[in-house]
Specification:
47 strands, mainly beta, 33-stranded mixed β-sheet, about 1000 residues
Length: about 1000
């Protein structure tokens, strides 16, 4: 059992982004605040004025967004509205805002609350995942949202968990309005990237609210239904292998072929790179999102108000993905390579030859996922007397993310290939890498299998299955949270807040898989077996902004249909239907108990009024983790095709761990009213953010065999969890100056600094895991290497694998004798092809093999870093002209960056998510016409520090987007609107240690929405 105890009490700089004057409405009593009069807003100007008033009247640094009218938030997607707040940037999924980064802290380190309550988070897309705390804003529609508040630091009465920010989503309450009110909206959505779904999809939303004449009872209901069909096309590289250039005879060299023509060869000892592959891929996505919230309020007396609410959100995602993939080989197949002259030499050209043919991959996937959120809450507020108010709030919330596709899977992957490629070229180094293949459709087909036909082109009669995969993930996250808060007012300027809180979070993740079920095998040995279920697809023609080489091929099919068809083929009767085996069962339970108090004081410093809000929060946290881990084996299937798979012949093992820690979190906000229009702020304090759920388990996962034999230097990799991780602890400082020079206009500037300890970095440790044995470097492989040396045959992964197979399976077998007589293995192309593609002749690990030593990426604490920056904002309306402008710029810097020339065997700690951001919004509102054009920009930033098998970084390149919104009020009740998102069709790209190492790039497009809204 692991036990950790931490106690700290040191006041360090903090921006206590708190808002003691912001009321969270009756159903949001998780924050103790001053009473505030509800502002009813309509239109852009009124909405911005309400947000400005929140910012001005708050203690600490707070930004906000308010609904422009009942049922009308500025953007359909909440994240896309939040990106216009100073210091907030977003990441996108499928062109839509998904998660937020605040002042350089990503989604895992921001707390998202709904009406002041912590919300659970879960994500298992693509049959993977199950360890996230990060809330995905794509799950929540904006129509029922009354406002969003961004607390950029915490204070004593705010639930902990957000170092970057705590973002509170406020929903409408019926007693906030008199009588009967309603809003009904409809939109027609056209996504320019759609290729298979409906060109126009619907969005429907309605919100009704009723309160009786005495305002003692009210009912509110909001519902929404949204459908979106879209597509993507892009290019990806699976991994970039980094090594040190050395002698051509060194077995650890990735390109150890003495006959290869090397142009501009790296210097001895210089780092160089080799890509695994280049893939063009396309996706077709259909998403259906349903949201609803029912709220009941009762206030039988002026001193008591109760609120009961239930929130439901469900997001269903279906996605078909197809690829055209071209793998780079090793050994004698490489004919020529040209390197650039960068510090890490990167190939800009490579050429390979395959006399017997090799496959071009056309994998097809079907992914299906459903995320369901259910939250039930109750809030009671009682005004005991003129001075004392008590509030009780509790909720039970659950987020369930799981694969909901056919066959009980979240991901169905049918590997396809056409073994007709006899030569291949790649061009890297530019923005868009390309390839060109030479084809011969007489190639391919297992021995004894008759191809349907040879016609001089690669078509569906040349396409075979290769490997089949099923994957499923299921994560259920729950939060039970209860708070008792009180406020005692001494006078208008002084009060005492206090409270206690109990919160229990539990996440249970299950993973299942049937991996690499060999159908046509890696050589795609049964061309034409699926007939017309496989259709040609011009993937090269799908790119609008880039130009692939002409003459390539692409295919498209439904992976689920192919699986059904494969089950009817007699040769697969013994292996299909595939049975998924459990690969992980992870449980994390986290219990937090907290108590706080805070004082609000007011006074005068000469002629300048000031406010002080200071408090202290104490929390204890207990974590229990357990993992049920399956047994695994290593299977060497060909050349660099090495897999680590579940071994169902051995039992699973259970591991458990516990950890505890506590935190003392002080805060101080000082607000000085220098004049009626000029406000200065100073805040210090301490906040925490807890480690991601996936890091708190006790399991190992992410096994990768290294892309070849360990005998020749490949390095198997894995990831391990650490249940003893302490939370990030940030001591923060904020100073700002705000000038409110008009009712709707202001200028603000501020600086911030966050000194963070316990940053969660990672370290690579060479260790054995789960007794997994290594079939690529045991006695059988060493004997094969000795035999090759004795014969004078060059040792590479081709010859080493095939000599091992020959010795174990081929020598003296009837199949070998039928093909080659009694001859020995001599490394000919025909022998290599036969041995590599013979069904059942794989090298599986056994008890004679050594334990696999994994370069294991393990999260750890102990890292310290400083993040600092500045924020500038202006909002101005030009008198009564109707014109207005918003602009902001945020600079974020850190003192720990990534060394691109650093080790490829050891992961680095570096600050991720740090980037400058800017927003510029021009507005017009007059005589019923509203128009807004917004420019959003985010600079390049480091997104990952340990991608793939060479501890590589991933940099997301700078991205900008222009959005448009125009609406016209035909009557006081009826408004029509037109929205355009990413109207210029900007694209996204990421790279590794240098620009030439492209990771992924996507050709994106615009989305348009035509709508009408009626209020009553």
């Amino acid at each position: 059992m692991l036990k950790t105890l931490q106690k700290n009490f040191r006041v360090r700089p903090l921006t206590a982004a708190v808002a003691s004057i912001i009321s969270l409405t009756a159903g949001s009593m998780a924050y103790a605040q001053d009473d505030a009069e509800e502002i009813v807003v309509t239109g852009i100007k009124a909405s911005l004025q309400a947000a400005m008033d929140i910012k001005r009247d708050s203690a600490g640094v707070v930004d906000a967004i308010s609904a422009e009218d009942m049922g009308k938030f500025p953007d359909t997607n909440l994240a896309e509205s939040l990106q216009r707040i100073t210091g907030v940037s977003i990441s996108r999924s499928n062109g839509e805002g998904s998660q937020i980064t605040v002042r350089g802290f990503g989604a895992e380190n921001n707390m998202i609350t709904l009406n002041g309550r912590s919300m659970p988070a879960a994500s298992t897309f693509n049959g993977d995942g199950g360890g996230s705390r990060a809330f995905d804003f794509a799950n929540i529609a904006s129509e029922g949202v009354a406002g969003v508040e961004v607390y950029k630091t915490g204070k004593a009465n705010i639930t902990t968990g957000g170092i970057g920010a705590t973002v509170n989503i406020k929903t409408a309450k019926p007693l906030d309005r008199d009588g009967f009110n309603g809003s009904v909206g409809v939109k027609a959505v056209m996504d320019s990237t759609n290729r298979v779904g409906d060109d126009v999809t619907p969005e429907l939303a309605g919100l009704v609210s009723w309160a009786n004449s005495d305002a003692t009872f009210g009912v509110g209901l909001s519902v929404s239904h949204q459908e979106r069909d879209s597509g993507t096309v892009g290019a990806t590289v699976n991994d970039w292998n980094i090594r040190t250039w050395d002698s051509v005879n060194a077995p650890a060299r990735m390109w150890n072929n003495a006959n290869t023509k090397v142009n501009n060869a790296p210097k001895e000892g210089q780092l160089y790179a080799r890509p695994n592959d280049l893939r063009y891929e396309f996706t077709d996505t259909q998403r259906t999102r349903d949201n609803a919230q029912l709220t009941l309020q009762f206030a039988p007396t002026e001193d008591f108000k109760g609120t009961v609410d239930y929130t439901f959100a469900e997001n269903q995602i279906e996605e078909a993905l197809g690829q055209t993939g071209n793998w780079m080989q090793t050994g004698a197949r490489l004919q020529e390579v040209t390197f650039d002259s960068q510090t890490i030499a990167t190939p800009i050209y490579a050429r390979e030859s395959y006399p017997d043919g090799i496959d071009e991959g056309f994998e097809q996937q079907w992914r299906e996922q459903t995320n369901t959120l259910g939250s039930f809450g109750i809030n009671l507020a009682y005004q005991v007397n003129d001075a004392l108010e008590l509030r009780l709030d509790g909720h039970n919330s659950e987020m369930h993310s799981r694969g909901t596709g056919p066959f009980g899977a979240g991901s169905i992957r049918m590997g396809l290939g056409a073994p007709t490629v006899v030569a291949r070229e790649w061009w890297f180094g530019s923005e868009f890498p390309t390839y060109l293949n030479k084809y011969d459709d007489s190639k391919g087909g297992n021995a004894g299998y008759v191809k349907p036909g040879v016609n001089g082109k690669t078509d569906n009669l040349d396409v075979s299955s290769s490997m089949f995969n099923l994957r499923q993930a299921d994560q259920k996250a729950t939060v039970d949270q209860y708070r008792l808060d009180g406020t005692y007012k001494f006078d208008d300027k002084s009060q005492f807040d206090f409270g206690i809180e109990s919160k229990e979070m539990e996440s249970h993740s299950l993973n299942y898989a049937a991996e690499n079920v060999a159908l046509g095998n890696w050589n795609a040995g049964y061309p034409g077996e699926f007939g017309n279920l496989v259709q040609p697809f011009d993937i090269q023609g799908e790119f609008d902004d880039w130009t692939p080489k002409a003459g390539g091929y692409g295919f498209k099919a439904n992976a689920a249909d192919l699986y059904v068809a494969a089950q009817k083929i007699p040769r697969y009767a013994n292996i299909l239907p595939a049975k998924m085996k459990q690969t992980a069962d992870n449980l994390v339970n986290e219990k937090t108990q907290a108590a706080y108090f805070q004082f609000k004081l007011g006074g005068d410093f000469g002629s300048m009024p000031f406010d002080i809000l200071t408090g202290l929060r104490y929390e204890t946290t207990d974590v229990e983790s357990s993992s049920l881990a399956s047994a695994y084996k290593t299977v060497w299937e060909d050349n660099n095709d090495v897999a680590i798979r579940v071994d169902s012949s051995k039992p699973a093992s259970l591991a458990e761990a516990e950890a505890s820690y506590d935190n003392l979190l002080p805060s101080l906000d000082f607000t000085l009213h220098i004049s009626d229009d000029l406000i200065g702020r100073f805040s210090v304090g301490k906040t925490i953010a807890r480690a991601g759920l996936g890091s708190l388990g006790v399991s190992a996962s992410g096994f990768g065999a290294g892309g070849g034999s360990t005998y020749l230097g490949s390095v198997p990799v894995a990831s391990a969890s650490n249940p003893g991780l302490l939370p990030l602890e940030s001591s923060n400082l904020d100073m700002s100056l705000e000038w409110y020079y008009d009712d709707t206009s202001y200028v603000s500037a501020g600086i911030f600094q966050k000194n963070v300890k316990n940053f969660i970095g990672s370290e690579r440790v060479n260790r054995t895991l789960l007794n997994i044995r290594n079939s690529t470097n045991g006695p059988r492989v060493q004997a094969a290497a000795a035999a090759l040396k004795a014969k004078g045959i060059a040792i590479n992964d081709d010859t080493l694998f095939n000599q091992t197979v020959y010795t174990q399976f081929g020598k003296g077998s009837a199949d070998w004798i039928a093909q080659f007589g009694n001859s020995d293995y001599t490394g000919t192309d025909a022998q290599n092809f036969f041995l590599a593609n013979h069904a059942g002749w794989d090298i599986e690990s056994n008890d004679t093999d050594p334990l696999t030593v994994f370069s294991t990426n393990t999260p750890n604490n102990g890292k310290e870093a400083k993040i600092y920056g500045a924020e500038f904002a202006v909002q101005h309306f030009f008198g009564e002209t109707g014109f207005g402008v918003q602009a902001n710029y945020t600079l974020v810097r850190g003192d720990v960056g990534f060394n691109n020339e650093g080790s490829f065997t050891q992961s680095q700690f570096a600050l991720v998510g740090l980037s400058d951001t800017a927003n510029l919004v021009a507005m017009y509102e007059k005589d019923g016409l509203q128009a807004r054009i917004a420019y959003n920009w985010r600079g390049e930033y480091l997104n990952e520090t340990n991608r793939g098998g060479s501890a590589n970084p991933r940099y997301i390149e700078a991205y900008s987007q222009i959005d448009l919104n125009v609406s016209y009020a035909i009557t006081d009740a009826l408004t029509v609107s037109l929205e355009g998102l990413n109207v210029t069709g900007e694209n996204s790209r990421s790279h590794g240690r240098n620009y030439a190492m492209m990771w992924d790039m996507y050709d994106l497009g615009a989305r348009y929405q035509l709508g009408a809204r009626y209020t009553f």
